[in-house]
Recover the amino acids of this structure.
């Protein structure tokens, strides 16, 4: 059997009422995409057996593979496996082995196993059980005939870490045996040129490209071009993609490309490593987010020794040496303060580059002159600071202003490093 | 007309292939939920006119309100309004006024308006245009008759900030005029008791509760109980909810409840404010995430003056005063190092409470003795440090280990503060 089309169905009232963001669907989508399995539709439904039945049945008409996440837990409103068993006409059977494993899981954690966990030791008769190495609810892979065609349903637990681990280790290897065409996607990363301008400049190229397809989309402070090719082999799809990526680099958009298949923090850390430069941070309104973004990158320790979160004026002065008279005269939201923070961070941490961020993330603290969203970012390198004043819209959320500030600081660092020579060998 | 049921449909190939996590659906779900509009199903589809048509038509059979996000942009693959216009039998009409507004938007940003943006100046004949104060694509609210019933379709742009602002300011006030029943939801926040144990303890209560309903779900390092009531007035629904929340506080679960309708960082900041205590952070493996979580809370500045990200040993020593002989003898992943970091942070920032985190977030750096996921967290208060060693599973991702470390540090702080008296008046 060949799987061409799949659907993802996420079960859980907590998603439907917005208590939880459905990151599972995004993650699984990427996985299916890379396996060359198309997906045209995705759904979320609540913990309701009738609606789940109806959705599963409708979905099975449109695809060979249905991946369901959620509803495998110990509580009475977890109804996924019961419902699927009924649809495919199978019983649930008890497994002593599964029970023992769940029991061991609790013992290992030093916790008491409550009796409702017993429910998780039942599986759909005939299904392959998928081990849960991280949690208690096992998954299942059911192969069956539906209206004369072969179908596969994969049941995965809702908690993202358990779901990902189970899919990668136990479900994916099985599904991979049923794929034919291979899709390869590459992303071109662009800064300082908006989506509509990119689209305008590449309009005719985008329209005439069918394999690979080329489509732009926005990410925070950057534009991405997604290039997707399909072929019978991975190598061939890869080659089609690569050719287009190389071609796009030669167009008007080329100068604005900072990388491919990367993220701004990763690109910055790689550039720092390549140039043997160390960076230090001093953050006020971003409150640690910039350092967090840098250290999200595994291996950041070779270019980042530390940073300061200087939230109050007194810490800006005491720990970073920002001049009290400047703080008094101009207040903390000022280009001179940002510059001295950047220099202070560089000096204290003994790095090559210092970054200083100060501004108003809101919701309070804005004035007519300096409304919420006003942020000063300084990058200190080679004896001088480059400071930029940003006016992120005052209607943006605190979270968004902080994110934009941290990302724009990284973009500024990227531009400074690109112009810089190699740093001292340490 | 009364809107009882709604569906949310998110359009965009970038969601379907997993490039973007669908946060819009979660956010809108909450909004609908609070308005007493039920939602049983949610969908995502790609930028394809036929499939969009088919999904919109099927959906309209099941609900009175359809909220569509995405596909309103300037590029040729943005097809939402064209498709909806066709389904409801209307033309797209050009608006000079919209064009001028888009033009002004670009001028204000100091950017050139590319010609493809002209597409965004077209709207569906007869629709109410919803202003976009943050971006360029206007939204629309269409009232029409479909198979003999009144329906409303709201079209919102895909970028979350634009979508939220437009919904809150221009769409929601209109939709609110068409609601009857009101739903109120409250969340009870629980730590140190897992979902299955909570479910076991409240099993009979959960089963017999229909209004309000009571359902548990997991969040990072906590369990939540969602209590949802419906009534004709908000006050009545609120009362039903509140009564249940108060009742649950008197059950066996009560001792584990740290708050209602809150988040761990918010609860910690509020506790610190209430007890007039200041906190300082020293982070190694979390690299600023803890400070970021604290400063996510608006108003954190009254309890948080700053923190240190001490990623390298040398900064742990130079900036925080961690003993070099301890670092030499035991390495950086050690309970003594965590304790000295906590104490150092408290001292340097002149706070009441210091938090130190050191450990191995992975993917590299683990040993047999101290595998990836080993994290030491110290909370220093009143002359002594409480240190806990955590073993977050070695199979968890770097991101997840960092998140669990930061959240668990906050839980430890919460427990220390609860036992503490009031701090010095500053």
């Amino acid at each position: 059997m060949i799987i061409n089309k799949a659907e993802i169905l996420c079960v859980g009232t907590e998603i439907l009422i917005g208590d939880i963001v459905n990151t599972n669907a995004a993650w699984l989508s990427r996985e299916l995409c890379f396996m060359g399995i198309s997906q045209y539709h995705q759904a979320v439904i609540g913990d309701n057996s009738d609606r789940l039945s109806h959705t599963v049945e409708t979905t099975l008409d449109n695809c060979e593979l249905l991946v369901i996440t959620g509803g495998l837990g110990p509580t009475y409103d977890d109804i996924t496996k019961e419902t699927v068993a009924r649809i495919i006409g199978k019983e649930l059977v008890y497994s002593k082995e599964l029970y023992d494993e769940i029991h061991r899981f609790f013992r290992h954690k030093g916790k008491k196993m409550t009796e409702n966990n017993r429910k998780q030791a039942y599986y759909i008769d005939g299904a392959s059980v998928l081990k849960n190495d991280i949690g208690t609810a096992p998954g299942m892979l059911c192969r069956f005939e539906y209206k004369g065609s072969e179908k596969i349903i994969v049941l995965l637990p809702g908690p993202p870490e358990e779901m990902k681990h189970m899919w990668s280790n136990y479900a994916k290897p099985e599904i991979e045996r049923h794929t034919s065409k291979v899709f390869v996607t590459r992303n071109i990363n662009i800064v300082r040129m908006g989506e509509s301008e990119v689209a305008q400049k590449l309009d005719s190229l985008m329209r005439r490209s069918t394999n690979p397809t080329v489509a732009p989309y926005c990410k925070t402070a950057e534009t991405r071009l997604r290039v997707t090719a399909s072929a019978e082999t991975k190598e061939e799809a890869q080659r089609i993609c690569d050719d287009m990526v190389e071609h796009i680099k030669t167009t008007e958009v080329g100068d604005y490309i900072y990388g491919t298949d990367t993220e701004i923090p990763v690109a910055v850390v790689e550039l720092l490593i390549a140039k043997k430069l160390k960076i230090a941070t001093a953050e006020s309104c971003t409150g640690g987010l910039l350092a967090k973004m840098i250290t999200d990158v595994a291996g950041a320790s070779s270019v980042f020794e530390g940073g300061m979160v200087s939230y109050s004026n007194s810490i800006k002065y005491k720990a970073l040496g920002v001049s009290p008279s400047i703080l008094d005269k101009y207040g903390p939201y000022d280009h001179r303060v940002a510059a001295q923070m950047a220099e202070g961070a560089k000096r204290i941490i003994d790095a090559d580059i210092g970054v200083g961020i100060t501004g108003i993330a809101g919701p309070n603290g804005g004035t007519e002159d300096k409304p919420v969203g006003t942020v000063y970012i300084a990058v200190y390198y080679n004896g001088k600071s480059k400071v930029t004043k940003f006016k992120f819209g005052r209607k943006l959320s605190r979270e968004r202003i902080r994110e934009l500030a941290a990302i724009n600081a990284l973009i500024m660092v990227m531009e400074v490093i690109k112009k810089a020579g190699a740093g001292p060998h340490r």
DSSP finds 15 helices and 17 strands in chain A. Chain A has a mean pLDDT of 93. Chain A touches chain B through 109 residues (CB under 8 Å).
